[in-house]
Design brief:
Layout (H helix, E strand, L loop, with lengths): L2 E4 L2 E8 L5 E5 L10 H9 L3 E5 L17 H15 L5 E6 L1 H12 L4 E7 L5 H28 L2 H9 L2 H7 L3 H17 L10 H6 L4 E4 L8 H10 L4 E2 L21 H24 L1
Parallel strand pairs: 3-4, 3-5, 5-6, 6-7, 7-8
Antiparallel strand pairs: 1-2, 2-4
Helix pairs in contact: 1-10, 2-3, 4-7
Length: about 290
């Protein structure tokens, strides 16, 4: 798999499809890019080049626990640099859950870079605001406080990062546990500051300022409530929404792989939307 040195880190990526407009898709949580490969193949068959990558601190990419901004902002800037290196800008930008937040922040920070946004399983609501700070940060802060970096490396998430990229263990073990706690606490506090907004991490004013075409497919669990997707579609000017024929479920999280039966519909809806955007761009150029 190709590796790019992005802002000092080794970032693993792959491009599925060899022709057509560029589309970057980002997975949710801190999961690697592999769960999006089936969807990317369907979109490549529809005529798109799909960039998938392991964000820093995910998949087989390098781990670096440093930075003042929320993680999604760091990921958005990394993605912009990677797309620039590939000569792929402007591009369609999309993602699921934290990948959707990353896509929104990408558009806010680099407004000339996205042709459109494709937002899947938007996160928001009281349940997500209470659950995710612990999932992303709290458990790891406690591990570092109680057992230092060896305890951090022993957690399931970091065991996976080390198995995928063994150099990550040395990088983590060299880190002062106090520094790790400091950075993770800052990330947690920044995350919590935006956790109770209608769309997690993004103010209403920011959503209303988005100036590119946007397409939303809401989720259906308590972390990705359908209302959060509807809120994004209401607040982003001109956004379109496509609701899958699925009911909201009273469960914390539905893994993305359980959405496999809907991938054909998702891919077709995304492809149709991107074709409409492309047609609109051509009309503007001719005017």
């Amino acid at each position: 798999m190709p590796t790019a040195k992005i802002r000092g880190l080794n970032i693993q990526y792959q491009v599925i499809g060899d022709k057509g407009p560029w589309l970057a898709l980002t997975t949710g949580g801190r999961r690697g890019h592999q769960e999006f490969v089936p969807l990317a193949k369907k979109l490549a068959a529809a005529g798109y080049r799909v960039l998938l990558h392991d964000r820093r601190n995910t998949g087989a990419s390098d781990v670096l626990i440093e930075g003042d901004d929320v993680e999604e902002t760091i990921w958005a800037d990394d993605l912009h640099e990677l797309l620039s290196r590939l000569g792929a800008l402007p591009a369609f930008i999309g993602g699921s859950s934290s990948g959707a937040r990353t896509s929104i922040l990408f558009a806010l920070r680099h407004p000339k870079a996205p042709r459109a946004l494709l937002l899947l399983r938007v996160t928001g609501g009281e349940f997500a605001a209470n659950r995710l700070p612990e999932v992303y940060y709290g458990q790891f802060i406690r591990a570092a406080e109680e057992g230092g970096m060896a305890a951090v490396c022993a957690t399931e998430q970091y065991r996976e990062r080390i198995a995928a990229n063994p150099a990550n263990r040395e990088r983590l073990m060299k880190m002062d546990p106090k520094r790790y706690v400091e950075v993770m606490s800052r990330w947690r506090d920044n995350f919590v500051a935006g956790a109770r907004l209608p769309v997690m991490g993004v103010t209403e004013a920011e959503l209303r300022s988005i100036g590119v075409p946007t397409f939303v497919i809401p989720g259906n669990d308590k972390t990705h409530s359908s209302e959060s997707g509807r809120a994004a579609a209401r607040l982003i000017p001109g956004a379109e929404m496509h609701a899958l024929q699925i009911a909201d479920q009273d469960v914390a999280l539905i893994p993305f792989e359980q959405w496999a039966p809907y991938e054909e519909e998702i891919a077709q809806a995304f492809a149709d939307f991107m074709k409409r955007v492309t047609a609109g761009e051509k009309r503007i150029r001719k005017a």
